[in-house]
Amino acid sequence: QVQLVESGGGLVQAGGSLRLSCTASGTNLDLNPMGWYRQAPGRQRELVAVITNRDSGTTTNYVDSVKGRCTISRGDAKNTVNLQMNSLKPEDTAIYYCNAYSTSRVYWGQGIQVTIVS
Length: 118
Prior knowledge:
Largest sheet: 7 strands, mixed
Distance between the termini: 40 Å
Radius of gyration: 14 Å
């Protein structure tokens, strides 16, 4: 069983930055890929960014709305995933969820609120 815990959310002004972190604990921490989703009020949950370790290297993918503003990375400990968010906009306001896959299961964090005010 794996637990994912997010941190780093909060309220910031438009144009500001936040760094979200997710730490995994438990057994079977061979998690790949790891990513971040978000869900705004009245909207479906959407993928924000995902990082995948492959034999050929690491790949990252982003939803178009955050490209150039966000960077996803894995921590040195391999059981963490971070999302650096810059130039934040009010439309980035949402609950952000950490997500991770093991060989046979998918795991979710409890979510963390990000609020951007103009």
